[in-house]
Design a protein that fits this description.
heterodimer; A: alpha/beta; nine-stranded mixed beta sheet; two-stranded antiparallel ribbon; B: four-stranded antiparallel beta sheet; 17 strands; about 10% helix
Chain lengths: ~525, ~230
């Protein structure tokens, strides 16, 4: 009897264990944290849309319809991948970051086989949850930019690599190295290396890297794209062509313009991000936030951005002023040098004619109020330094209208500076280093941009005058009288913006910068197509 | 979990060690074999996690598998049953939108698993020992272990890449009602209806990211079997 029971038990146990097989495997996880290492291989496909479904998705919103009209009907489907990669922080410590890989799909000729890569640098993001791979979540702060890049490039046959910078998504760095050109170029290059590895193991391995590489980006991304071209050239890595757009390339001159009173829209967010970035990278800024920022906002400001909450919430909570970068009760300079103090006081005053047009003054005056962000004492310190150690381009631009066009002899950086912030801006200014693009570059923007002034593009074009004249560097002003190969885009932008003005009045100016973005990206695509 | 398994084993051992009465000349032991018709009345929470659109759910397909049991008669009216089925290949279908972008989802087999699910039941048998037809009811405990968990190609496509699946083991209550019919002194046929509660949490791992769904199975099974007493 006992033997029978044992046999029965053995049968049951055997039934239980005999079928115990291994479970389905996941992909490989990298053990190295060397630069450019892809963490999960294959990467995670977060969404897959064929040309028709992607078109339908875009058509479901008014902004998507506009984008579709501008970018064109998708020729390809797009597979969106989220990938993680290793890069380094400014202190060279290994850092985990993430990004998007967008792969064109479909059997049409431009969608399969060897395809060019567009390396895309994203714009300023104030929310730490920014994830440009998250096309499936319309609430993600990156959704609009992700859709734009996908519609303009991926759906037309370009493989897109778009990293999230350090400080966003899964990054644990705790801040974003904002406008740190060398650092973000490193991130871009490492993401590209990892994405090229990921490309070998996607759901569509028939879509492969043709070896052609185009680099572009908008706003902060325009700057980081240019920095990436600079770094890749220095490293001997090939870039087929590039199209930095509406970026703050001439950082020293741009910083001077702002402290001179030409306050740009968005500056109350940009200022703390710049200070946090350069404070970590160079350690040469005033150590206490209260030495720079007013008592109203100084507490905690060095770790405020990027933040999980949207900027509007930070405004509501009183953690940042919405527009008042400077005190409406303007300070005066007291160096003891009468001529310098007089010039400084003119620049420290609230902008007004005749130094500025009425329209310019109305825009800049929005940057003055109370409570305000930047201390008067710091502003005076900056302005005095900028006058003692002038940026030649900015001083030339300050001359009364009509201003002659900038030339290469007008745009020298300051010889030196005693202020840490200006030293850092100069270091990161794209004029620094005596370099010029070796491959075709398109600089796109709009000359009325109130967020990133078009002077950044003008200064770089002047710096590279021989290259502009030789045709290697092209400048596209979306606001110029339509002519040439991009006249349809110029007319389209101007018509779109005019529509915004009709609908919103003066408030439309706040949308100028973002309205330019898809037009510049479509221009970039057209430009790339001419550089096969 | 280890403690629960040991408790379960101990309970089974005590039950098996107990001597009991059995009808006729047959002994107190009974082995049964038959067919399990398992219907999974599964209720799964929507799948949650990164990059998961709302409204994605699961459905567990019904299975038919081999039923095996050992029953020890403790007394005229009390039996102890240790039942198990041959681990069936159970298929999980996607439920929700027809397509995730351009990836088919609704109705696609997205994963398969096998499970070993022994149940220990204490049963009260109605009627006297000589009755040919004896209804019974029972309550007990079910232990379910999932293994050979596989994400299918369709599952990998929906998940975004090669995916591993975990389903932790479950211990829950079980109950049964049944009817036995004596064909001869040693042979009986049985029909029963059993239900158990199985709770688990499906965790899918794809490229280092996790998606989860709480699943509450109420597997209810119609069993047709034959038994031999000794």
């Amino acid at each position: 009897m006992l033997r029978k029971i044992v046999v029965l038990g053995a049968v049951l146990v055997t039934l239980g264990l005999a079928a115990c097989g291994s479970n389905s495997p996941t992909g490989k996880v990298a053990t190295s944290n060397a630069r450019g290492t892809l963490v999960d291989n294959p990467p995670l496909r977060v969404a897959s849309a064929n040309a028709a479904t992607f078109s339908a998705q875009l058509s479901s919103t008014p902004s998507g319809q506009q984008l579709l009209q501008l970018a064109g009907t998708p020729s390809c489907g797009v597979d969106f991948y989220y990938f993680k990669y290793w890069t380094v922080a400014p202190d060279n410590s290994p850092q985990l970051a993430s990004g998007a890989l967008m792969v064109p799909t479909g059997s049409a000729a431009p969608c399969t086989g060897p395809r060019p890569i567009v390396l895309y640098a994203h714009g300023t993001a104030t929310q730490s949850t920014y994830n440009i791979a998250d096309i499936s979540d319309t609430a993600n702060p990156a959704y609009g930019e992700s859709a734009m890049v996908a519609a303009v490039f991926a759906a037309q046959g370009y493989i897109v690599v778009a990293p999230n910078y350090l400080g966003y998504d899964i990054s644990t760095l705790g801040y974003h190295p904002y406008l740190d050109g060398a650092e973000n170029a490193t991130v871009m290059m490492d993401a590209l290396t990892a994405a090229r590895t990921a490309l070998l193991s996607t759901f569509t391995p028939t879509t492969s890297d043709s070896g052609k590489l185009y680099v572009t980006g908008y706003s902060e991304g325009g700057y980081e794209a240019m920095a990436t071209v600079k770094a890749m050239q220095a490293a001997g890595e090939a870039v087929t062509a590039s199209a930095p757009s509406s970026g703050p390339y001439a950082l020293e001159a741009f910083g001077d313009a702002i402290f001179f009173g030409q306050v740009d829209i968005g500056s109350t967010a940009f200022a703390p991000m710049v200070r946090t970035s350069y404070g970590h990278a160079y350690g040469n800024l005033h150590s206490q936030p209260s030495q720079v920022f007013s008592a109203t906002y100084a507490s905690g400001i060095d770790s405020l951005l990027p933040n999980a909450a949207p900027l509007s919430t930070l405004f509501q909570q009183g953690l940042l002023p919405e527009t008042a970068l400077f005190d409406s009760t303007t300070p005066t300079s007291a160096t003891g040098n009468a001529a310098l103090d007089a010039q400084a006081n003119l620049l420290l005053a609230i902008p007004a004619p005749p130094l500025y047009t009425t329209q310019e003054a109305a825009l800049f005056d929005l940057g003055f109020g109370n409570p305000y962000l930047v201390n008067n004492s710091y502003r005076v310190e900056y302005v005095d330094d900028a006058l003692i150690n002038p940026d030649q381009a900015e001083m030339t631009l300050l001359s009364p209208p009509p201003q002659p066009p900038l030339t290469s002899s007008d745009v020298a950086l300051a010889a030196t500076s005693t202020l840490g912030l200006r030293q850092d801006l100069r270091l990161n200014d794209m004029r620094n280093g005596g370099w010029a693009p070796q491959d075709p570059m398109l600089l796109c923007g709009g000359d009325q941009d109130p967020t990133v002034f078009f002077q950044n593009t003008q200064i770089m074009a002047a710096e590279w005058t021989p290259y502009v004249q030789g045709g290697l560097v092209s400048v596209l002003d979306l606001n110029a009288t339509p002519s040439g190969p991009y006249q349809a885009l110029q007319a389209g932008f101007q018509q779109t913006y005019a529509g915004l003005v009709t609908a919103q009045g003066a408030a439309a100016i706040a949308s100028y910068h973002s309205t330019e973005a898809p037009f510049c990206m479509v221009a970039a695509r057209g430009f790339f197509a001419q550089v096969p | 979990m280890q403690k629960k398994i040991m408790t379960l084993a101990l309970g089974a051992a005590i039950a098996l060690a107990a001597s009991g009465a059995h009808a006729g000349n047959a002994g107190p032991n009974d082995i049964r074999a038959g067919v399990y018709f398992v219907h999974f009345d599964a209720q799964a929470g929507d799948i949650s996690g990164p990059y998961v659109p709302p409204g994605l759910n699961l459905h567990v397909d019904n299975v038919v598998t081999l039923y095996l049991a050992y029953v020890r008669s403790i007394s005229t009216h009390f039996d102890v049953e240790l039942a198990a089925g041959y681990p069936p290949l159970t298929k999980t279908e996607g439920r929700g939108p027809a397509m995730l972008g351009s990836v088919p989802y609704n109705g696609r087999i997205i994963s398969t698993t096998r499970w070993f699910s022994p149940t220990l039941l204490f049963e009260y048998v109605f009627g006297d020992a000589n009755s040919r037809l004896r209804p019974y009811v029972g309550v007990g405990v079910n232990y379910t272990k999932f293994f050979s968990r596989q994400s299918t190609a369709a599952g990998n496509a929906a998940s975004g890449g090669p995916t591993s699946i975990s389903l932790p083991s479950s211990v829950g209550p079980a109950a049964t009602v049944g009817l036995s019919y004596e064909i001869s002194d040693r042979w009986h046929v049985y029909a029963s209806y059993s239900v158990a509660q199985v709770n688990s949490k499906l965790t899918a791992q794809t490229a280092g990211l996790q998606r989860t769904s709480e699943i509450h199975f109420w597997p209810n099974a119609l069993v047709i079997s034959a038994g031999y007493s000794f």
